[in-house]
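fyi for ur records
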Amino acid sequence: MVTYSKDDTSAEELLADRSHVEDEQYKAALDLLTKPHLEVPESGKPSEVEVVDAEPNLVSDYEQSDDGYWYLKKDDGSYDSTAYIKNEDGTFTPYSE
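which gave:
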């Protein structure tokens, strides 16, 4: 439990102490935090980063059904209603009568 008396001046003395504000290390740290440093750092040239767009997933998930046709499985786990046939080269073509 913390108790205070109206004659206690320790808080006033603590707040009046400004020695940390005049400290050179404090000033240097505050300077680093408050001023943007947009120039090239002294340690050398910054690393270059190449941003590359992610390639879309072009592989579709087809599953063969008991009826002999292939159906496209959607991301949510459901299937497309279009029936496909598998070509000799491994590609799929929508079935048409």
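Residues 24-34 form the longest helix (11 residues). thats all i got for now
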